Each structure stands twice: as structure tokens, then as C-alpha cells.
User: What shape does this take?
Amino acid sequence: MYTDPRVVRLVNESFVPVRAHVKENAAAFKQLGERYGAQWTPTTLIVDANGQERHRIEGFLPADDFLPQLQLGAAHAAFANADYQIAARSFDQILKEHPTNDAAAEAQYWAGVSRYKATGDPSALKETARLFNERFQNTAWAKKASVWR
Amino acid sequence: MAVKANEITWGHDLDAALADAKKENKAVLLDFSAAPM
Assistant: This one.
């Protein structure tokens, strides 16, 4: 997953990378694994600067799927930091760059929430619910957004 | 340490990474791995 140049670039630009290897760093693997409840490899966590987990990816993903998951993680970290406009732009970027990926429906949901949190304008949620009538209709995210209609 | 564009330089100290993340306004990517190194 970490050999794809797009993944390398995103990691270097957006994250501080830390690796706990089951053999090479066994003590850290055990300690951090217990702290975060990571019991399988690969497990990738996006953790904010306060040490709070904001996104979890369990199991291998091809780069085309791993990339938008990392972007989701960065966007969720921005959201948790109350950087709502940055989060909205980041979620929108996932939708633009990976419109058919599994991550897109989640991005559409949280883009709407981020816009609402940034502006306080409930029309952002209504518009998001409308968008779910056009795409990603059969997803759990569409069901979650349906209450905003 | 200079970051090479074509590779990831992994740290192994989460507390140090969290301090860097705060300074750089970034999140930490924590990879639990069993991949060959």
C-alpha cells in the first residue's frame, strides 16, 4: 500500500507517519496495539495531535481504495479539530477525485455536516439529503442523511 | 531529517510524532504492520 507514489506523496504531505511492526518493534506493537485496540495487521489509524483515533482502516486495500481512505482520515481529523471549512474542502476533494469509490458516500455525508458546522446553515444538510437522492442512494450514508429531507 | 519524495520515513515513537503533529498541524498515521521490511 505504501509503494504507490500517490500514497507516498499524501502521507508525506498530510501526516506524521509512525509504524509499529509486529516483529521489528514488538514492544511498541504490543503497547500501542493495546492502547488502540489494534489486533490485526495491517491496521492503519489516523490519530489527531491529541492522540485521539479519528479513522481506522483494517486490512489490506489496493492503492486506489487506500488513498481515499487516507483522505477520509485527514478530513475527519480536520473536522475533529473544528477546522470545518478545511474538512468540507477535503471531503469534497474525495468526491471529486474518487466519485465511484466506496469512500465517496461517506465523504458526501460528512461534507454536508462540515458545511453545516462551518456556517450553522441547515440548508447544507437539506442539500446533502437531496444529493443522496441522486447518487449513493443504497448506502447506509443515504439512510443517515434521509432525516435531513 | 529531509523527506524523500519517493519514500516514507517512518517514525517509531508515537509521543514524538504527536508533538510533531501538533507543531505541523497534521494528523498522525499509525501503521500496525507485519509486512516484510
The first helix of chain B runs from residue 14 to 24. Residues 2 and 26 of chain B are 17 Å apart (CA to CA). DSSP finds one helix and one strand in chain B. Chain B touches chain A through 29 residues (CB under 8 Å).
